[in-house]
Amino acid sequence: DKGYLNFNNFNVESTDPTINSTISPDIQNVKINFYGPVELSDGNLTIYQLIDNQPYLRQYITKSSCTVSIDGKTVIAKILDSTFSVSGGIYYIKMDNNFVRDKTYKESLLGIRDNIWSFNVKQKEVPFAPSMNGLLRLTPDAKAIPVPRSRLTSDEKNQLDLSVNEKQYLISIGVEETRVDNDYLSVETVFNNINTMVKSKDLTLINDGQASKYLDQSYGFIRTLDLWKTYKYKLLSIFLIIGLLIVLFFFARRRNSNGNNIAILQLGLIIFDLVIDITFVNYNAKDVPVLYFPRYDNFNFHLLFFH
């Protein structure tokens, strides 16, 4: 029997992708074809990546992410964008016993064991992309987030998120740039993967981590603004005003070297400082209530995104 020889399972006729095939990293779903009509039950599909012959979890697939064809013989499971992101990698899918059951007799069917339904992901060229920063939001229950810096970087900047009623903090995470001649994921891919994994954390290993489970699923991973592109005209205006004050100072000093010419520069800087202070109080004072720095007990960065 073809199904039994391939899958050690009399009920499975074929799968897509097939065993030992090479697939695109951009596939949106996988399929399991059964000999007879089935219906979804309580088991899961689990996707692993093999690294040095060690399996690493990439995605849980529950029945809520699956559909059954009209004839009842094909189960279609949705794949997250981040699941097959490591091109050139070796993956396999495990099917739990009782993932499906016979539609007629309501009997649970056997699954597919580890390392049986395995396949490769096609190599994909990694384009250059500059480093970028993004924001993750902690849930209200998050008190401490242990994070190693070997995976991602942090600029240690944290702030209170004023867009929600509960006290929740934003933490800034940086993704280092990559180039075509290395084996790492592109910055854009890493960024999108983190966003997908956080938003779907109940289907990924993020939900299993002591730290990463406190990342807010509704927030995802938000790209921060490029400050120079956003504020360059305001910054140029500030530099222009300061430059003008310096020019006026030297002009007055040249005309009357004995006068109190420094007062011109001091007055200009005092007015400038007053304007900046008022602007801060009006727009940003709530970011730092009572001018304190957000504090976490034993705050270390340890996000379990990659292995």
TrEMBL record:
<protein>
    <submittedName>
        <fullName>Uncharacterized protein</fullName>
    </submittedName>
</protein>
<keyword id="KW-1133">Transmembrane helix</keyword>
<feature type="transmembrane region" description="Helical">
    <location>
        <begin position="233"/>
        <end position="252"/>
    </location>
</feature>
<keyword id="KW-0812">Transmembrane</keyword>
<keyword id="KW-0472">Membrane</keyword>
<feature type="transmembrane region" description="Helical">
    <location>
        <begin position="264"/>
        <end position="283"/>
    </location>
</feature>
